[in-house]
């Protein structure tokens, strides 16, 4: 089953939005398979955002990600990479639709509270960067037969 990497950034953690954000993924029907609270180093943040290293905000972004606790998670489900991004909303919260996490809970692009992998390949890379294989928990949830239906 498809997996994606989701992180609540330091602003989301500090603002007490962990439960609110997890709840949106849970209620949708996605399954949590890994979770940990960590304070990444700046070098680690640079690895995570390596695609953006030429952008003017790269240094500030990496300083910010490494400034405080990050709640790192892996979520599993059909279409979770693409739909996870829909739940999150557009990068700039001024452009995120109401009803999305960033649309409802954030105001500026530099403090948009959550990260989600932007495609299946990135998701695999990010899951591997943030988690060891043994930190991923495979299990069957009782809700699955109601979420997906069974014949
Ligand atoms: P992530 O899920 O965090 O990767 O966001 P994204 O995929 O929606 O956007 P992108 O990967 O392009 O940018 C990564 C992060 O850099 C964003 O979430 C923002 O926090 C930050 N960012 C992007 N564009 C800007 C910008 O123009 N200014 C500032 N200050 N930050 C930006
Ligand atoms: Mg991105």
UniProtKB/TrEMBL annotation:
EC assignment: 2.7.4.6
Keyword Chloroplast annotated: no
Active-site residues per Swiss-Prot or TrEMBL entry: 115 (pros-phosphohistidine intermediate)
Domain of life: Eukaryota
Entry keywords, A to Z: ATP-binding, Kinase, Magnesium, Metal-binding, Nucleotide metabolism, Nucleotide-binding, Transferase
BP-aspect Gene Ontology terms: CTP biosynthetic process; GTP biosynthetic process; UTP biosynthetic process
Positions with a binding annotation for ATP: 9, 57, 85, 91, 102, 112
Transcription regulation in keyword set: no
Listed GO MF terms: ATP binding; metal ion binding; nucleoside diphosphate kinase activity
Coiled coil start-end: none
Main location: plastid
Cofactor: Mg(2+)
Cellular component, GO annotation: chloroplast thylakoid lumen
Subunit structure: Homohexamer.
Family: Belongs to the NDK family.
Role noted for this protein: Major role in the synthesis of nucleoside triphosphates other than ATP. The ATP gamma phosphate is transferred to the NDP beta phosphate via a ping-pong mechanism, using a phosphorylated active-site intermediate. Shows the highest specificity towards GDP.
Protein name: Nucleoside diphosphate kinase
Taxonomic source organism: Dillenia turbinata
